[in-house]
Amino acid sequence: MDAEITLRVDGADQPVTVDTRTTVLDALRERLGNTSPKKGCDHGQCGACTVLVDGRRVLSCLMLAVAADGAEVTTAAGLANGDLHPVQRAFIDHDGFQCGYCTPGQICSAVGVLEESDGELSRAEVAERMSGNLCRCGAYPGIVAAVEQAAGEQR
Amino acid sequence: MDFFRPDSLAEALAAKAEHADAVPIAGGTDVMVELNFDHRRPAALLDLGRIVELHEHGRQDGKVRIGAAVPYARIIDELGRELPGLAMAARTVGSPQIRNRGSVGGNLGAASPAGDSHPALLAANAEVEIASIRGTRMVPVKDFYTGVKRNVLAPDELITAVHIAPATGAQQFSKVGTRNAMVIAVCAFGLALHPDQKRVGTGLGSAAPTPRPATKAEEFIATELDWESPKPLADSVLRRFGALVAEAASPIDDVRGSAAYRRHALAVLARRTLGWAWSEHLGGGRRACA
Amino acid sequence: MTGLLEPKAIGTDLRRRDGALKVTGAARYAYEAPVDNAAYAHPVQATIGRGRVTSVDTAAAEALDGVIAVLTHENAERLASTEDAELAVLQSGDVAFRGQVIALVVAETSETARHAADLVTVHYDEQEHDCVLDPDGELYKPDKVNPAFETDTAVGDVAGAMASADVTVEQTYTTAMYHNNPLEPHATTALWQPAGDGGDLTLWDSTQGVHPARSTVAEVFGLAEDQVRVVCPYVGGGFGSKGTPHAHVILAAAAARAVPGRPVKLALTRPQMFALAGYRTPTIQRMQLAANRDGVLSAIAIDVVEQTSRIKEFAEQTGVPTRTMYRAPNRRTTHRLAALDVPVPSWMRAPGECPGMFGPEVAMDELAEALGIDPVELRIRNEPEVDPDTGHPFSSRNLVACLREGAARFGWDERDPRPGVRLRDGWLIGTGVASSVYPVHQMPQSTATIRCEDGRYVVEIGAADLGTGTWTTLAQIAADALAVPVADVQVCIGDTAYPMASVAGGSSGMITWGSAVVEAAHAFREKFGDDPADGDEAEGSVSENPMAERYAMYAFGAQFAEAHVNADTGEIRVPRLLGVFAAGRIVNPRTARSQFQGGMTMGLSMALHETSVMDPRFGHVVNHDLAEYHVATNADVADLQAHWLDEHDDKVNPMGVKGIGEIGIVGTAAAVANAVHHATGVRVRDLPITLDKLLPHLP
């Protein structure tokens, strides 16, 4: 069964026809051509599909597109507004990625971490809060350093 | 697949009455996994995302009422003082992204023995609020689970909330896993002191086909604790308590751990959490005035 | 060799050139190929462990709105070559392992394809299957082990040395079945254009080598190589599993040929990857060490038992590193295989060295303990002057320097050797060490071209960047070879439209492709001098290194781990992991550190988390997703440090590089296991080290 919905993706309204089974992730990737969020497991177990929905980080593979009708979705592509987002620059500075496949999800997640925390985070806290995003290349030390740098800039 | 997206609880209950096979979905962290795994191909989904009262918490008859779809992240941020045990359990759920969407109602609906909130709900004597167009009923959480991934819900019913008395004593939750994050519990244990009732509540996770309390351990420790003039607990008492908790389990061997390991670890978690909670109680506890 | 390139760009700490594309998600991976009107393919997998498909009922699937085709062994095209049984998809009803593809649905949407795959009904004639690796079961001796090593080697009399030694260690160690699990699931977008000279096939495939993938696909379909183009600018991790095409590539191409002119997208699901994308065989390693009281080895032997699939052999070279590591007059290595009804094993990061440095390096720790000699010192005492396997001198060997440097950085000197005596806040604490080794591999073929365009230099080579940094590091090499600023170099990789490059495997990329780029640069300068005109172009290829016949060429390393084990629950944490490597010249410290650290993280994951649990009743991996197949998370990695020595080796290649993608995973698991033993006194010889294995023995 198909449904007509509108997602606001990276600041632009995107009307789209989806199957009621279509996830936000597949709607973005296969219907709207936004392949910034990645599919790593389709089960909410890897974090590669992380996007910001109404400002909070969520797993887009666990969210039905029909249930997100009218929602504001921000992908890593949308975070870069002309210039790279400070979190994105920090990831490049600290080599917080290798193959790059988990990276857009890591970036969105890191932006979520900064949004969710009001105080200073310890290294261990950053690592814990970033643990919903697997990186098989093992770029974790760089990811933590990048989040710390971006947090420092934010303060 | 049909998709229903009611705007109110009344509409949701009506839809559920008419379409008993519709699977309720809120944060999606359980249902969507089943869907994407092809474990289920439901005829219809019932999206609870728009129903305001399911996403709110507040006080009702002296208890905290948590709407079934309130995400774990809000329980951690907003209810840590009143419900420390549940907040601790919520902190160990999946990943931060899961905690932003997953809810106690979803955990109860799935009724997986590994669900993180169950031990805390059991220890705190939570009650589950269940509604249908026929009316609303309250079920003590210990009576809620009926088998592996099964519960007392009738086909036309929805979980609408859980009700939990604010903590009157120290509460603990402890979980063993094989990595530092994104852990499905090898086993978990929740404990709550109820000085007002002169008893201790317990809950076991990943230790039996259903989450369950360790009743004999609760009975034993109720007779051992001196609530009027509390004294440090003898190691023998802690050990006996741990042994009784382990006895309450009927675990299995699986990918995550062996039955023997689970029994051992439960005994450790039980005596540890009781020790911590009782120390807090002895020390006047930050929750003495709660 | 005539001396090394003078390093200017080489050795500088450049940021990744593909960084901006990756942090925004603009880098396009195989499934994301920009094509119009794509159809979607979803495989149907066998649900028996062995037997034959007797009938496939596709009616219900075909009746579903949006289904374009259902391919089965009855209607799929006949392939030109079925020599590689893993790739001979849909050619017969035979089922060789559970999860093998027996049908493929092509549909208008991915949701419909998946749904339709569910509706295909299959009947089987089921036979008994065997998927249990049993060292006492039926085994055979393969002709060679991967890729072309002798299966067995023997020098002297190990049994005699064992009988007369002061101290011996004789133990069996096991490593688990591991799945590569790159974050990007294996995916192919395929387009068959029947027009033109017999038609053209374009594959956007997630692969570690576009040219090797093209050769394979062309052969399987009986096409000329120039009819096939493979494109892959970005690979979402491979770790060996994308080193050779697996069945899904052929399926995607076959589907595309069934719907000419229409692109078809196929991505394996995470659970499907556990049957269809290769894995590392479990290994059983029987170790023997004999030594005198001073710790000098008189014998070292490893007898390996591992599995392969009944339909296609892959013989992991697990015993090979033991041939080179330590001096001992009496030596033996053997490999025996069990051919089982299991998915086809394949390459996974450091095949051979990774599992093969677990048993020996734990055995060395056991020997050190038995002798009362420090484990760092024991290794130093057994340092060979020449390669014990070939008798050749090493082009450079700095294992001892790595051990010493690592010990100093780690604070090893303060170590109390007694196991199980440090308890702090309920946690038992210990430290461990192990050696790392990885050979210098140069592939026989690779060609690069360099062309002058608008005053810049365009380097073209069909190489791959799996996250290894090729986009950036090849530019650094070209810059120094041309003696120009790195900003003047543009690199083009990941497309068979560029000259032939070898697979990104065996840590050979920088060595092989870099050599081709250096050759091309020399040819370019020779031809056009220092002031070339636009359009000037020269080509260069890697050539055989005559030094390789006269020298043993290896990178070495030493890894140090600190383990904390909860005295009550057996939970294990590794707060510190430190590696020091001697791997030739480092082209880019920033990306190199990531490579080493990434390998070490995967080694940590192997030590504590990873194991694919095979259900012998059904023949499938039970924990076939990322919730249950645990890989290390961010919170599992604490203080992780990779260092390297400034190593000068002018024999390996003109850049002086040895390859760094794999050595980081070698020895890590042994270092962790040795640290856990030092913490607890419990010797776990079977990976992974889990709570259950420790708990019954904790003090």
TrEMBL record, chain A:
Q: Which Gene3D superfamilies match?
A: 3.10.20.30, [2Fe-2S]-binding domain
Keywords on this record? 2Fe-2S, Iron, Iron-sulfur, Metal-binding, Oxidoreductase
Question: Listed GO molecular functions?
Answer: 2 iron, 2 sulfur cluster binding; metal ion binding; oxidoreductase activity, acting on the aldehyde or oxo group of donors
UniProt domain 2Fe-2S ferredoxin-type: residue ranges: 3-79
- In terms of domain of life, where is this protein from? Bacteria
Q: What name goes with this protein?
A: Xanthine dehydrogenase YagT iron-sulfur-binding subunit
Please give the pathway this protein is involved in: Alkaloid degradation; nicotine degradation
Naturally occurring in which organism (per UniProt):
Labedaea rhizosphaerae
Automatic annotation (TrEMBL), chain B:
- Coiled-coil regions listed: none
Which terms does the record give in the GO molecular function aspect? FAD binding; oxidoreductase activity
Q: Which SMART domains does the record match to this protein? A: CO_deh_flav_C (SM01092)
Q: Which SUPFAM superfamilies match?
A: CO dehydrogenase flavoprotein C-terminal domain-like, FAD-binding/transporter-associated domain-like
Give the record's keywords alphabetically: FAD, Flavoprotein, Oxidoreductase
Locate the FAD-binding PCMH-type domain: which residues? Answer: 1-169
Q: Which Pfam families match?
A: CO_deh_flav_C, FAD_binding_5
Answer yes or no on keyword Nucleus: no
Q: What InterPro entries does the database record attribute to this sequence? A: CO_DH_flav_C, CO_DH_flav_C_dom_sf, Diverse_Substr_Oxidored, FAD-bd_PCMH, FAD-bd_PCMH-like_sf, FAD-bd_PCMH_sub1, FAD-bd_PCMH_sub2, Mopterin_DH_FAD-bd
Asked whether the keyword Oxidoreductase is assigned, the reply is yes
From the Swiss-Prot or TrEMBL record, give the protein name.
Answer: CO/xanthine dehydrogenase FAD-binding subunit
Q: Which organism is it from?
A: Labedaea rhizosphaerae
Automatic annotation (TrEMBL), chain C:
Q: Among its keywords, does the record have Oxidoreductase?
A: yes
User: What sequence ranges are listed for the domain Aldehyde oxidase/xanthine dehydrogenase a/b hammerhead?
Assistant: 24-128
- Return the Pfam families for the record: Ald_Xan_dh_C, MoCoBD_1, MoCoBD_2
Q: Which GO terms describe its molecular function?
A: iron ion binding; oxidoreductase activity
Q: Identify the keywords attached in UniProt to this record, alphabetized.
A: Molybdenum, Oxidoreductase
Q: Which InterPro entries match?
A: Ald_Oxase/Xan_DH_a/b (IPR000674), Ald_Oxase/Xan_DH_a/b_sf (IPR036856), Ald_Oxase/xanthine_DH-like (IPR016208), AldOxase/xan_DH_MoCoBD1 (IPR008274), AldOxase/xan_DH_MoCoBD2 (IPR046867), AldOxase/xan_DH_Mopterin-bd_sf (IPR037165)
The identity of this protein, by name, is Xanthine dehydrogenase molybdenum binding subunit apoprotein
Name the source organism.
Labedaea rhizosphaerae
